[in-house]
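Input record (one chain):
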Amino acid sequence: MKFLLSIVEPRGQREARSEAEGRACYEEMQRFGEQLAARGQLLASESLRPDRHGVRVQVHEGKPQLRDGPFAEAREMIGGFFLLDCASLDEAVAIAQRCPAARFATVEVRECAPCYVQ
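The corresponding structure, as predicted from the sequence alone:
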């Protein structure tokens, strides 16, 4: 079963860190990903740039509407993700509990499934 672990962090948190703190955090997350890969559980992972570098896209009545970040209404942003292959939700949650990001952000665990599945 595939599960997505989304790292949902407070906006501005990265900017509040020194470069050394940011690098240490990134390296710790890299090591965590390497451990998952060694166990055959990691399908993909990435760190994402802050939302000020993003664009939101919606199409209404055939017309695209684009909105550049940052997104004022958002207090949090998706800072990165891990895509995992796990036997169960319990296994994915156990991995999320060990994720270093859980100390400074929320790690949301979601099973991947077709959009018609309830």
